[in-house]
Design brief:
Length: 117
Amino acid sequence: MYQQSLPPSSDSPAAAAIWARGIALAERAELADQAEKLARELVSQAVRRAPIGQIYAEIDVRDAALRIEVRSTGGHPGGGSEWAEISTISASYGTSSDQQSHTAWAELRTVAACPHA
């Protein structure tokens, strides 16, 4: 599992995108473009939700997939419209919240792992 911590700044989505692309290229190269887009979008949402606090990103490498999870503190859950882009590039996604943080995750799968391919 790969982890990083980011401030809630306008530079963080681009930094997360570069980080995710590098990991994907090393682990699941065919998912690199999607991982870059997904990390950028998840962190961008976290920055909008939590203008104060901290953002934590994780990438979990699975058999034929990458799971990207972003947790933000000091904010509030976002609305459904934020998921439009994520739903077009991910195989599955979801969120959870508690009083201290909000977590959003999405999973990318290789073509061989997708039952519809």
